[in-house]
């Protein structure tokens, strides 16, 4: 199904291998409880998840800073659910969220099984828009760090997916041609269209129950990779 022989596979991390939503929910449960923020966790998370995606899109597009992302996503969530939380407490929660997030280590089902299957056959790498200070901690905490030869993040590259430069940096660092490279990720805009624009072959992990498309093959579970590669 791929036009050229694949030698290198590049994965997104959050929402693709590392179960961001589950780990994020556990982090919020911990820090909201410890800081005695009296909100219904389910209501908070239901409101926060789409707001977080909205602000991450702005961050990818360089329309807000990292500090604005961390503050505004919490501020808007609390305002939306009618919770009165001071700016000082929001700032504290923003810091504690980042400090605690990587301590939770849930992966998507079959992640380790699939990495064990792929690693003897392909060189494996990561391209992530996540923050440099916690992405390595996530990989190490989940015991998958050693599967990957090259780990590129947006702070290293100076740009975020889908900008071509982050993909080009990954290819240059891994010393591989785009036609022999496969990008696997959950975000159609950032991972799939971004990688395709540079010449990667692509595989869309449909982590968010998105509608079908013809851009590339979609999978609904990581275990399906074993039937493709």
TrEMBL record:
Residue stretches in coiled coil: none
Taxonomy, superkingdom: Bacteria
SUPFAM superfamilies tied to this protein: HAD-like
Keywords: Hydrolase
InterPro entries: HAD-like_sf, HAD-SF_hydro_IA, HAD-SF_hydro_IA_YjjG/PynA, HAD_sf, PGP-like_dom2, Pyrimidine_5'-ntase_YjjG
GO MF annotations, alphabetized: 5'-nucleotidase activity
Membrane spanning residue stretches: none
Gene3D superfamilies xref list: HAD superfamily/HAD-like, Putative phosphatase, domain 2
NCBIfam families: HAD-SF-IA-v1 (TIGR01549), YjjG_YfnB (TIGR02254)
The protein's name in its UniProt record: Putative hydrolase of the HAD superfamily
Originating organism: Flagellimonas flava
